[in-house]
Structures are given as C-alpha cells and as structure tokens.
Amino acid sequence: SQKIEQNSEALNIQEGKTATLTCNYTNYSPAYLQWYRQDPGRGPVFLLLIRENEKEKRKERLKVTFDTTLKQSLFHITASQPADSATYLCALGQSGTYKYIFGTGTRLKVLA
Amino acid sequence: ETGVTQTPRHLVMGMTNKKSLKCEQHLGHNAMYWYKQSAKKPLELMFVYSLEERVENNSVPSRFSPECPNSSHLFLHLHTLQPEDSALYLCASSHGDRVTEAFFGQGTRLTVV
C-alpha cells in the first residue's frame, strides 16, 4: 500500500540554523509533491509545490528538493526563527486525480 | 485567512445527536474535500466532490453523510457517532483539474461524548 514517512515526529533546532525535514514515500509515483505548514488547532497552509521533473524549488528562506529515484523530498528552512515553529506536512498528488496523500508531519521547534 | 470557512469551530455532541458541519469557499474552486485528522495519524481523505458530484468516498462509515449543494458549499452530516470519531475535521478546496495546492479551512474540533 502507499506509504509516506516523515523522518521524525519532532525536531528541535537552534535559532539561525537550517532545519531539514525529510519525506520518503513507497509504492507511489507522484506527479508532484507539496509541503504545508500547520499550527496547533488550525488547518494546513500551503508552502511549496514541486513537480516530478523539477529537482529544486525555492521561496524566500524555504527550499524543497525532489528525488524520484530515491523517492524522497527534503524541505529546508534557512536562518530559522522561533516563528517557524509548527508542524510541517508533505503531501503527494497525481495528475488527473483529486487525491492528496499526506504524511503524519514533523513538529519543528526553533529554540531562541 | 485562506478563503475557506468552516463552522462551527468546536462541537461537542452526544452519540445519539445529529449535527452538521459546514464549509464555504469563494475562491472559484471546483473541487471540495473533507479530511479527518486524528492525533499522530496522517490526514485521512473522507470525501471529494468535483463540480458537485462525489468522486471519492474512502470507505467512510455511513454515520458520516456528505452533501454538496453547489460548488461553493459543502456539508458533513453526522449522526450516531462514536467516541473514536472525535477528531479535527478539515474542509479543503482546489482547482481539481490542475496540479495545484489545496486551501484548507480552520477545521472543526469535534468531540463525541
């Protein structure tokens, strides 16, 4: 069955460092992969989308890579700030379907 | 705000009650979704509507009944729920025919007692 794993349930890092979150998947060939941010008690908010033919995408302090051979995506937050503390979800999708399949998320805490 | 509004934000209901969750979007999206989010579990897709027609129904118990009267509104009717149905219920919308992101509402925190 299709499975998405996000490397750790929780990750603590010091302010100013780069946070790296991992998303691995099996038994799936996504056309694209997305990253969302979720704060407690709120719905996920979209951050970045990367397609299968793209290796890397950037937006301000965020960077996403997508390796379809390794079946892995890495999500980086550079110069992290306490305000970046949240749960980050990866989601996979295929063209022509309405399904977004989500991972369980990684709870990031940036320490001041 | 994302443009997707859910009401109520919190709901406590007994196992014999009937209640409804409401979702509204005015983003011009043609697909709407219900997800269930339980602690330490990934978001579970429950239902998808495209152009007001149900296109996904992921083996959800019949005590959950969706309704999509038009492309801007989505309901989830609840009856005779179980305590294990307590969770955060999230509505989302998207341009269903494109590779694009989903916009989520704030969710309804449901507690079944």
Summarize the structure in short.
The complex is a heterodimer of chains A (112) and B (113). Chain A is mainly β and 112 residues long. Helices cover 0% and strands 57% of the residues of chain A.
Q: Which key terms come to mind for this protein?
A:
heterodimer; A: 112 residues; mainly beta; 6-stranded mixed β-sheet; 5-stranded antiparallel β-sheet; 57% strand; globular; B: 113 residues; 7-stranded mixed β-sheet; 4-stranded antiparallel β-sheet
**Secondary-structure element series of chain B:** EEEEEEEEEEE
Sequence stretches where pLDDT stays below 50 over 5 or more residues of chain B: none
Number of strands of chain A: 11
Gyration radius of chain B, rounded: 13 Å
Oligomer: heterodimer
Mean pLDDT of chain A: 92
Element-by-element helix/strand order of chain A: EEEEEEEEEEE
What is the typical, i.e. mean, pLDDT of chain B? 92
Please count the beta strands of chain B (DSSP E, at least 2 residues each). Answer: 11
Largest sheet of chain B: 7 strands, mixed
Strand content of chain A: over 45%
Amino- and carboxy-terminal Cα gap of chain A: 41 Å
Portion of residues in helices of chain A?
under 10%
What is the CA–CA distance across the termini of chain B?
A: 30 Å
Q: Greatest interface and its residue counts?
A: A-B, 26 and 29 residues
Helix content of chain B: under 10%
Structural class of chain B: mainly beta
